[in-house]
Amino acid sequence: MTPREGRPRTGLTPALGAAIGCAVIWGVNVPVMKAGLQEVDPFFFNAARLTLSAAALGLLDAAERRGRAKVPTPWRKVVTLGLLSSLVYQVLFLLGMDATSAGNTAIIVASGPLWTAIIESLMGVDRHPGRAWGALGVAFVGTMLVTLTGIDDPTGGATLLGNLVMLAAMGTWAFATVLSRPLLETFPATRLAFLAVLVSLPGHWALALPGLDLSSVGRPGFVASTIAYSGILSTGVAYALWNRSVKDLGAARTAAFSNLVPVVALAVAWVYLGEQPRLLQLAGGALVVAGLLMWRTARRST
Predict the structure, then answer these.
(1) In the prediction, which pLDDT does 11 show?
(2) How do residues 4-48 score in pLDDT, each as one tens digit?
(3) C-alpha distances out from residue 141 to 134, 145, 150, 285, Å
(4) Of the candidates 294, 301, 298, 300, which has an alpha carbon nearest to the alpha carbon of residue 140?
(5) Low-confidence stretches of the chain (pLDDT beneath 70)
(6) What pLDDT shows up at residue 295?
(7) How far apart are the C-alpha atoms of 258 and 88, rounded to whole Å?
(8) How many structural domains does the chain have?
(9) In a 10 Å sphere around its CB, with 0-12 CB exposed, 13-18 middle and 19+ buried, how is residue 66 labelled?
(10) Whole-angstrom Cα distance, residue 252 to residue 113?
């Protein structure tokens, strides 16, 4: 027996690294995207960054395809997931972010595991013990605190409508995450991410082109850099990392790592956008993170 045989894996596994990397990329993306949306039409921003995402994911998929067996594409499921996760979710996320602060966006994004767990239970995919539901209840209180009270920040431009639209976006993302799990057991994660973004592009450009006026874009170089970061990393590389983690860790466990998103986003938004965290916002964010950590502990003890 070699020293590695028969021993459980400890430390940072590839799946854990994928989940953490995804959360960090998304945390930075929140203030980056918020800054970009102040300079250009939101629908054009979304269409352009997702076009870059499709290109990045297509290259990753082509590189991976050389070393894997051919798998038939279940187009009906892929199109359904693509429209849900890359069109409906992305449009809701865009509209929500445009109407609320980067800090509120990040904290509401961190509530993803709550909605994932609820949808898993409703669909009979997974069951959660009573202690886990108590922990998720703490996270829910934190989310509601941010949603209902963090709406008068003149710096970040937070509104109740923006917060509610962002909640709807997270519910859509959670539903798509749960639906993707069975498909990811047999279908390559990177290819699913690539095809999901690809099928959504006609819809995004249909929204962007009618009112497009590039002459009104402020700071073109800055806008291009934010689109590049958000497209290549946040909705390109990160999609592949997310699907890899969902495949190996499961939907709810992967979603738990989104509690890193507000920590990263609040810090970057403070430095980058001047959004100084507010007391109620921090209290709500602390409850979200604490509830999700308690939930993970409760899940491990079952």
Answers:
(1) 54
(2) 444 344 455 787 888 888 888 988 988 898 888 888 888 999 999
(3) 11, 6, 13, 10
(4) 294
(5) 1-12, 126-129, 149-157, 251-252, 255-256, 258-259, 299-302
(6) 73
(7) 20
(8) 1
(9) exposed
(10) 6
The alpha carbon dihedral of 130, 12, 288, 165 has a sign of negative
What pLDDT, on the 0 to 100 scale, is given for residue 100?
A: 85
Decide if 224 is inside a domain.
yes
Range of the domain at 35: 25-65+73-209+219-300
Look at residue 128 in the predicted model and tell me its pLDDT: 66
Q: Which residues contact 260 (CB under 8 A, 6 or more apart)?
A: 20, 23, 24, 27
Cα 92-28-190 angle, rounded to 5 deg: 70
In this predicted structure, what is the pLDDT of residue 82? 93
Separation between Cα atoms, residue 244 and residue 120, nearest integer Å = 19
Domain for residue 5, yes or no?
no
Burial class (CB in 10 A: 0-12, 13-18, 19+), 217: middle
Contact 278, 150 (CB under 8 A): yes
